[in-house]
Amino acid sequence: MLRSVILAAARNQQVKRVVAGAPVSRSVVRRYVAGESTDDAVRVTGELVGQGLTVSLDHLGEDTADAAQAAAIAKAYCTLLDRLSGEGLAAKAEFSVKLSAVGQALPGDGERIALEHAREIAEAAQRAGTTVTLDMEDHTTTDSTLSILGDLRADYPATGAVLQAYLRRTEGDCRALAYPGSRVRLCKGAYDEPDTVAFGSMHEVDLSYVRCLNVLMAGPGYPMVASHDPRLIAIADERARWYGRARGSYEFQLLYGVRPDEQLRLAAAGETVRVYVPYGAEWYGYLMRRLAERPANVSFFLRSLVSRG
Ligand code: FDA
Q1: Does 90 contact ligand 1 (Cβ within 6 A)?
Q2: In this structure, is residue 292 part of a structural domain?
Q3: pTM above the 0.90 mark?
């Protein structure tokens, strides 16, 4: 219930104006977001790489409503790529792109605009020796995102996909995407979805996650296990051994600011660990989804609003 309320607020422009404009304690945002600038993204990348981790950088923004903003976000990715190349960090960094940030939600030819911008970013990433992964948003965008993925993979085969275990369709999508070279990030899913398309209970979502994990670990692709759930991490580790996978033929992914000790523990055990690092000024939707995942964070957040307000 609380989760649904927070996720509804994540897309409500009035609530956004109130929350984003309030003098929120910077520490709440800073826990999950690297900072607002390219410099912040480069600095945090350097720190994480120095600890033996790799990163996936997300320029914050979603549901972009004007074409100029979509183009600006694509350009920001290319600028960041140049900076990381200059610092010798590009090989350890890939890029997570939300298609709605680069135009997918624009009326008319939004899908074409998003594909063009995603192409620009994938081209720059390929030049720098790295890759892009397309984040997955709510279920109304799944078909469009997978279609754009197919177009991008024709020219940039290393482009990664994200599949959400809470969707009933996802086991089938895992099978379709389990082919050589296919990079697939498996997560539980972060949006508020109707029962018609998504499993209703966390238990069902976890079971679906394990079924999908089996498909990906058994297949010839490159699974990216995106979860902080200790049980799922342990099962992924066990499944990798079961299917005879060498370390480095799959990876674990966790969010910046969430279970940092676990990130280091996995890396110390010889696993490839990638930290998803968001940066930029448009932190509102991202932060609200993180709060929805952990109700304990909500009271902390509200207290900070009240104490600074
Ligand atoms: P779960 O939510 O059950 O959490 C397990 C444990 O992890 C919790 O008990 C808590 O200890 C800790 N934890 C989890 N979230 C926390 C938080 N916010 N703050 C503090 N502790 C927390 N979703 C999506 O729909 N599309 C996408 O493209 C992506 N991309 C993505 C990339 C990466 C690298 C990750 C790790 C996750 C995503 N997600 C996503 C988000 C994902 O769908 C999911 O909402 C979160 O990962 C939380 O699910 P867990 O599997 O961690 O389990």
Answers
A1: no
A2: no
A3: yes
